[in-house]
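Entry type: protein chain
Record version: 2
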Amino acid sequence: MGNCTNPVWPCAMAGAVSCLSGIEDLAVVIHGSSGCYYYPATLMPGELFGTFLQEREVIFGGAARLSEVLQGIPSHYLKIAVVTTCVTAVTGEDPAGVGADRDLLVVDSPGFCGGMEEGYRLAMEALAPAVAPETPGVNLDGIHPADPFSRGNLREAERLLALSGTTPATIFTDTTLDRLGRAAPVSLSVNPDLAGGAGRRIGSLLGLPAVAAAFRALGEECEGCDPGPVLEEVERAEERITHAADKYLRRHDPPTVAIFGMSAPSVYAAEMLATYLDCGIAAIGSRNDPGPSRFRVGKTTSLEEIRAVLDREQPDLVLGSSYERMVHPQGAFVGITLPLRGRIQLRARPLAGVEGALDLMEQVLNACMDRERRSRS
């Protein structure tokens, strides 16, 4: 689980690993115990390396073990990132000194320095991406391998850019080291809570109004970008969602909902459900520091806090992770944040973009109808 003070959300170390592991020619070494390695390894599909420090190495130093691991990393990796953990940060080890003969990038992001978003930020700062003004296209940020919607968000963002006649430039972080230094001047985000990358952020793809606004801005900013086809898709999606939601509301009362996840995706989901399904937003529990919202958002980072909110509100519908599904099994449930255990997901499901909005409402309506059927049986 994350760390002792934040058991339901990955710690900064895991956030740094998630950011770095999306770079295909960068090897990522987790310098710490086996527990520090296995948690991010269960969230991310790529190859990770670990030093798996034992008690003796914690006491006397893990430099020899780190050196051994570095020597065994395949040569096709152009660079190696060493991510510190609580143990190695407290003991003050210097990985850079150990790997003086290798091209090392040291990211000091032990679990106690914050949550996943903080580690992501620290890793991005260490990578130091740069803009090349001549690079065409639009960067995409907020992509990270630990996100169960990462592949879907990336494909949906690429699809929308293609509709508008625009191409993706650097993708943070599903890219190469070379492209990190040649980012385009402007960026779109699929998750504004994971700040980073390079280029001026011109908009977000979380929500239909946000998609429309972002592509209008791109039309003014990027030569050759035609937002028209995307705006037409947004309009058609709104019509489909409105029709499906109205059909549901003719037979059922609007559900009350509690939403848990990162702040920006949670507020996006709340806006969708309040706008189209007239849901009562009973609570929003943010895993990170809340951003601006017309809803009341509280930071909720422990299982005890989650249980207290759900016991108090008793919502009809819960959006969140496996933790919320476990605590409140009697409610309708839709997963919108990690971890999502006990379910197989093979297809690339988006949460952002036009298809992400359609998928979210489809999941919600089906979950609510299933709950109505169970209550009658």
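Comment: The CA atoms of residues 85 and 110 lie 4 Å apart.
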